[in-house]
Structure prediction request, 299 residues.
Amino acid sequence: MRPVRSARAGRDPAPSRLRYRLHRFWLSPTTRLAAWIVPPLALIGLGVMAANGQPQLRQQLMSGTVATLAQVKALLASPVDRIEVFGASPGIEARILDMAGRSTSENSFGLGLDLDPLRREILEDPAIASASLYLRPGGILKIKVAERIPVAVWRHEFGLTLIDAAGMRAGTLNTRRERPDLPLVVGEGAPRAIGEALHLLAIAGPVDDRIRGLRRVGDRRWDLVLDRGQVVMLPEVNPAAALKRVIALNRDFRLLERQISVADFRLPDRPGLRVLAETGARPEAHAPAGESRQISGGI
Prediction:
């Protein structure tokens, strides 16, 4: 057998004594600590020496240090002396000030205060979309909020709710008379389809003075409810086109001014009309079976 020889035969792989001692010296905790502390201290010393040679620079450094210490002291020691709310209407501003006032009495506002609990409490108000809180020197707490803008009133089994363009809650109402300027929608799933509802209401502009609201049926399609109990039943697919046809027929032939209770356009190629009975019965008595027992349907 041949002996195995290294390609670098004749060279001792062990480190030299000096190299070994230097390596051991570097691994000592004292040396590593000094390596982290001495260079920064040396730089600071050089900066101080340079500042001593320039009175103007020394004065600027002293002024900046004093101002910084004063701000830190104010944040640490000063409570909240003033609360400022931006972007809120008077009613919502009053609610926010009440929340912040309670938090101020329960906490010593300072640099280490976590403002997230107060922010979360403010966001629990359905009328507020976003909120930002800032603690400024001098004990000033600034609260900036963005309100949800209601675009419709949603009537459901628990009452009346304001909803914004995204279908999110924007507040509650006690009576419909509080916001007569907003359209009314009813039915399960109406907030999820509020964008389509607003588009349909825009199309129905020529009969806007007669609209009582939109009713969501089966969370899949809409009924346009007019005064005198008249109902325009729209299809699940492309209801805008069907409603445009209804508006055109009303313009040309006064369709909705006739004695009809229901204009059924669920099948656009086969529309149907239900005429009021000669006995003068209410339109509700002629509602199509299987979908709606009452034409008014809570509107």
